[in-house]
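Support request, please re-run this one:
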Amino acid sequence: MRIGRRLGIASLAGLGVLLALAGLVAWLNLLGESRLGPAPPRVAAGAELVARGEALTRAGDCISCHTARGGPAYAGGRAIETPFGNVYASNLTPDPETGLGRWSADEFWRALHHGRSKSGRLLYPAFPYPNYTRVSRADADAMFAYLQSLPAVVQPNREHNLGFPFGTQAALAVWRALYFRPAVHVDDPARSAEWNRGAYLVEGLGHCNACHSARNALGATRGTLDLQGGLIPVQNWYAPSLASPHEASVAAWPKQEVIQLLKTGIAPQGFVMGPMSEVVLNSTQHLSDVDLAAMATYLQALPPPEGDAPPPAVPLASARGATLYRDHCVACHGERGEGVPGAYPALAKSRAVTLRSPANLVHIVLEGGFPPSTAGNPRPYGMPPFAPVLQDADVAALLSFLRASWGNRAAPVSALDVARARAGRD
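Re-run finished. Output below.
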């Protein structure tokens, strides 16, 4: 009898702990959130508000995720790949049945600030509300006004395809309790107005750390202020540290070159390729020079990481790699990796070549690619794919040669690194 009674007491105690934890999770998910009132009557927004909302929506790069390839703008349907499955972007056009036509400005604000849908369901952080939570209410209202001005597109939203338990609201509630708190942007009085505007764009609307930060096993970053670089989940591109002088810091660049890179995709000291090309194509090239200058000011002020060190010394480049470079690369990139300004990037003393992860180099050699076509660079020169031509060992030898030549010093690339990239694995 006593054993049974003890087991019963232990079971009740365990149930009490579970209920307390569930209550804590629920409280953390509602922290800072107020109940929505009835929606006010819809009033047509003025042209100035709509235009401002368009600029802000461009700054948030909403079109990239919420437009399927070949589909209507902002009508959703694009698969956002994650390590846990696919999340499908929703329809942001004002269709009343499948889009935002029945949403209120309050509900749109709640989605950005609290990560909650019109129905109250928790949203997946593939929608970067951990960053958008910093967007001001006035800016959210302007973005909503712009989206409501778009042509309505009837396109039902697709169900997400996430493995268990990641597709459940309970699992998402636990994730949010661990990693999300609503926030607001607060200007730093010790900084200039331009720096503060840049911080607002980079940390909030621009959600730069969504790529330029490492993620843990549950897909959480170290916070919106972390820009120390990391592998982009699933895509396996490496988004370099924006603070390290050995990776992608622009602290030593002339400010106008930072603006040029964000506006055109090319600058004297760098080109954008891979996922960043889409960001420039759909977002930053459309921003005002004032906002681009603010972003440049913020990025140039990022302090270098503690303990940041140059890449270690490496063995001498192989003769095999030198032969492959001569046969396939020298015509564009030059005998000494000097490149052609405005056309083919220099490889000598290139931080893009010596990043601690060789993932981007492997992608570019195997798949080829172009910088974005922008108003300032409408016909970019491109790189052909070499996957059909070079074997894994050849690509490894070629890239190891690049990483140990003309002043470059970085670890060699192995055939296994190339094989993993070719197979689409980490």
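The radius of gyration is 24 Å. Strands lie at 79-82, 85-88, 161-162, 230-231, 238-239, 266-267, 270-271.
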